[in-house]
Amino acid sequence: MNFAAQIEAAKNKLSHYRSSPFRQYQKEAIEYVLESDKKFIFLEAPCGSGKSLVGLISAICKNGANYSVHSKTLQHQITKDFPEAKSLFGRANYSCAHNPALTCAECFHTSSLPCEYKKNKCSYEIQKSRVLTSRLRILNYDYLLSECNYVGKFSVLENPAKNFNVLDEADSIENTLVNFVTLTFTSYGLGRLGLKNEIEDLKHTSKDKEKLLSSWKRFAELAMERASEIKKSLDIRVAHFYAPLTHDNIRTLKDRTGIVRMMEKIKLFIKNVDETWLYDDSQEGRYVFRPLWLNEEIANQFMWRHSNKWLLMSASFLPINIECKRLGIPLDEIDYKVLPSTFPVSRRPIHIEEAANLTSKTMAEETPKLISRIDEIIKSHPAEKGLIHAVNFKLANEIYCGIDSDRLIIHDSANRQDKLDFFMASKDPLVLISPSMARGVSMEMDLCRFIIIAKAPFLSLAEKITAARVYGSKLGSEWYAATMLTTVLQATGRGMRSKDDFCETWILDAQFNRVYLQKPSYLPFWWKDAVCW
Fold first, then answer.
1. pLDDT digits over 45-80, tens only?
2. CATH (residue range 4-24+38-174+295-317+329-338)
3. Which of 128, 222, 363, 381 is the most buried (most CB within 10 A)?
4. What does pTM read for this prediction?
5. Helix, strand, or coil (residue 473)
6. What separation in angstroms does the CA of 274 have from each of 105, 298, 346, 449?
7. What is the rounded CA–CA span in Å between residue 52 and residue 143?
8. What is the CATH superfamily name and number for domain 345-532?
């Protein structure tokens, strides 16, 4: 079928793009999506190749879609680039019209205590209505999962018209899916449930899988009973509230919201836990139950059954057998297309050096070598802005404190967006140090002319789930290596956003080179073509 006229008509509906020609391979990618008869379409396309336009035009041609991304930052960026799209966040992001001290997540509206603002003045309900009637609905992964499984308005099960979903940066969806089904207790929560002794007993249960699973379920069932008792008590108190609400009333409402969420997680756990799950109490004050890998049944129940067609887009997927294993997708239900890069190699050089050998045992002695080389690179770009990827706040702060320069800026977990906005708006040759800018950030042209990847971004083997995968199977060790390599690919793409752009990258950790030489096939040819030795 010839989709050319349909694709052009769809582009004309996007005000920021109707007068611009397609980039090379964009139209080809859209045609591939429209022609596919598979439930899952994987589209791997380089950073800056225009995946968002491909996804949204495909959505228009399919009579609309939920277009989901992994972060709120990317949600804002998509709606800025495509004003025809409507964006919706979770309830906690909207202030209560009745009482600004509450968010819409603490809504007290019931038949016995109705809120006069609920129908016509609630900011969340108003925006949700707008988004539900839009053809282009921009959501984040967490909200999509919550909405499809607890409310249903964005699911094909509730509305047959919602039969196409686009997942941008889809290589990161596994974490959201696993976290959605993961059950976590804190020390405070267990104390409130009166289960501190019971959680300690789980450390001493049998290594027999069947007995272990039974002990977990008994614990969860007891937790559900205790949580239900607390909720009943809170419901009685809420039933006697009257407007205007006091400070204590508001605290009670928030308390009830927390208990309800806990009960939802416990119920989900009891229904789905099996012998492949892990119990992890390695983090002080946190007790976690989670699956080792997503199986097809769980993934389908919570994600894939909510749409008839899925377009998964990313600059970097893991090898497809690993990708399907971790997402619970049958291999025979996919189409897979890889787009080449149209950006000249000379404008995106990637320098691989062994400035430092950064392992857990050598970090202390090797970090000064790393910082010295970073300092040299920064000084070689005195009039240009740059980005330094650090794997955690500890390394980011060591780099920041180890280099004497007023060009450096750094953020913490609370002010990330403010610091990023400041960096983007500044005309000065600033250098941003961050452990969390490898994805979803576009720094085109003069916003970023050089990138430094300080350390190979391996997942922590101190995390029980990671260690269990790595040491449990060959597939797990391959997943570990591939995840690091594809994270580096994402990180190198933050500053190279068009064929006329220019951004130079340095990768300084010898551990990257070690894995890269062992597993070169895990990275696409267009990326490897830019490597300089």
1. 987 788 999 999 999 999 999 999 988 888 888 999
2. 3.40.50.300
3. 128
4. 0.82
5. coil
6. 31, 11, 52, 49
7. 19
8. P-loop containing nucleotide triphosphate hydrolases (3.40.50.300)
